[in-house]
Write a structure and sequence with these properties.
This protein is mainly α and about 80 residues long. Helices cover about 60% and strands about 0% of the residues. It has one domain. The chain contains four helices and no strands.
């Protein structure tokens, strides 16, 4: 697992307790990992704010797309 993959796993709470503690120390001592963590958390917060008004809303019913398009010609396979 790369540092970036481990970082995202750590931020998402996917690492075990011991691995999380070890990686937290790496983040604390690495400017690059701290910067990536800060960017990820800022993006996560932004996305939460942007999509909060529609979060939890039901998706519109789109039906069976294949059946709805039966009247359109399909390309012929050679």
């Amino acid at each position: 697992m790369t540092d970036e993959e481990r970082l995202f796993a750590w931020l998402d709470g996917e690492l075990g307790e011991e691995d999380a503690a070890i990686f937290a120390e790496r983040v604390r001592t690495s400017a690059r990992l701290r910067q990536l963590a800060d960017q990820h958390l800022a993006l996560k917060q932004y996305m939460s704010q942007v999509f909060e008004p529609i979060a939890g809303q039901p998706l519109p019913h789109i039906g069976n797309i294949a059946a709805d398009n039966d009247d359109e010609p399909r390309s012929k396979q050679a």
